[in-house]
Amino acid sequence: MGHRLAGFVIVASALAAGACGDDPLGIPRATSLEWAGSAERTGLAGVPLADSVVVVARGPDGPLAGVVVSFTASAGGAAAPAFTVTNADGRAATLWTPAEGPDSVIATANGPRAVLRGEGTIASASTIHRGRNNYIEYRAGTLPIVVSAPHGGTLLPDEIPDRTAGVTVRDRNTELLAEAVAAALEARLGGRPHLVVSYLHRRKLDPNREIGEAAGGDPRAEHAWWEFQNLIEHAQARVVESHGTGLYLDLHGHGHPIARIEWGYLLDGDALALSDEILDQAPWPTRVSIRRLVADNGAALSELLRGPDALGSLLEDEGFPGTPSDVQPGPGGAPFFSGGYNTRRHGSADGGPLSGVQIEAPFPGVRETAATREAFAAALAKAVDRYLQRWY
Prior knowledge:
By secondary structure, the chain is an alpha+beta fold. It has two domains: 5-123, Immunoglobulin-like (Sandwich), CATH 2.60.40; 128-391, Aminopeptidase (3-Layer(aba) Sandwich). The protein has helices at 174-189, 211-215, 219-243, 269-272, 276-279, 291-297, 301-306, 311-317, 341-346, 363-367, 370-391; strands at residues 5-15, 21-22, 28-29, 32-35, 53-59, 62-63, 68-73, 78-80, 83-85, 91-97, 103-108, 113-123, 128-130, 136-139, 145-149, 194-198, 246-254, 261-264, 322-323, 354-362. Strand 2 and strand 3 form a beta hairpin. The longest helix has 25 residues, at 219-243.
């Protein structure tokens, strides 16, 4: 089955009811609600529309401020916020994430209702989906591989305030590395991986954290966060649709003293210091981001972490040292990134359909120049090819 992008054609209709004036609590009551903007729009199923949907509340004298409006998605989608109040122009907005197939969002305001209805559409696997203001981009693929790059972006829009908590330093050139990896996988395997990239600087958004720390409460940053996360999930759904399962790779960059690849399976240095015999026993095989792959193959966890056919070992064979691998079973007490929010959310540790790993790449020899990025990408593509043949 080919890969598809599902979108929505949205048709607006408004139903008016109720009476003018205030209710007993003094809240203004509208006589009608109507959707602002075009009556037809497109959007990717399971992903927030690039622009919020806006409803206008009107009274006898025109647009009405202070009206409480509720939003409800009717067929599996989502609307957030679910409640809001109209501004001075009588406008209230919500972020609509439509479900695949027929869906609608209903706005109500103590009587008046306005309904947006949608119908799912199909696009080709070569479609490129860009989110609001091109902050987030998704390039659909055909391979059972999803690649994401959350920390390489350079955009610093004034509309989003700088984050004041957490790490704000970008992983330089990882957005370019992700593009090189996608190209190398296509050249090697004859198909495209799914690719999701954040082009926002980490000062504005950290898509590898939960939404509070990631966006700092700013609604525009939160919009981008939802786009990033939901696009990965949309890509994974396409992989499951056509292949049943697949591989998720989350690309990052580190500045640790040892210039090697760090493979994050949600096991820290202490866990990787354990013997193979211990790691192969409960609870470790159910705690890793490749949990499904271990179960599907009936393999020992240590084989998939640092056996000869582990990703780290296969890339060692191509000249790029890393840990864990058969050469370097663990970090040996050195600084090490074990995997983050994305690896847990989109890997199989919590039962997801795709197994995943966080790839932390050093700057020298990997992210540094176009030549080093291309060399690494070609080596990784070869390692992934061998990995898929062995375990999938």
